[in-house]
Design a protein that fits this description.
Layout (H helix, E strand, L loop, with lengths): L1 E3 L5 E5 L4 E5 L5 E6 L6 E6 L5 E5 L4 E5 L5 E6 L4 E7 L4 E6 L4 E6 L8 E3 L1
Antiparallel strand pairs: 1-2, 2-3, 3-4, 5-6, 6-7, 7-8, 9-10, 10-11, 11-12
Length: about 120
């Protein structure tokens, strides 16, 4: 997975190392988050507040990572989430789920609601 924030930093999911790398606008590369709650990150998306969403494939969850590197589990027990798309107009995150061949819609502003699954 790859995503870009409002400051043009690029984020890359490293599936093998369970980490997220960030390439800053000056070209320097750093580990943005390493192993903290990540097990096989794949899909990435970023919202208007530069929160990073991660499809945690082997962790069977979708997490939000703030710019302060706080990790929040948005959806747990979702089997093998893969691709992510953040819709800024509706503040919703869409995720493909390989575990049951579905698309999940997540209201990122109200995470207490259960996600809606479409088949």
């Amino acid at each position: 997975g790859i995503a870009k924030d409002s400051k043009n930093n690029i984020y890359v999911a490293n599936f093998v190392k369970d980490s997220i790398e960030r390439v800053k606008t000056d070209g320097t590369k750093e580990i943005f988050l390493d192993k903290v709650g990540l097990l096989g990150p794949v899909g990435l998306a970023i919202d208007e507040d530069d929160n990073l969403y991660v499809a945690n494939y082997n962790g069977n969850s979708i997490v939000r990572i703030t710019q302060d590197r706080e990790v929040i589990v948005l959806v747990d027990k979702i089997t093998r989430p893969y691709y992510l798309f953040y819709d800024k107009r509706s503040n919703k995150l869409f995720a493909t789920v390989q575990g049951n061949d579905s698309l999940v819609e997540i209201d990122t502003k109200n995470v207490s609601k259960l996600p809606i699954t479409f088949r």
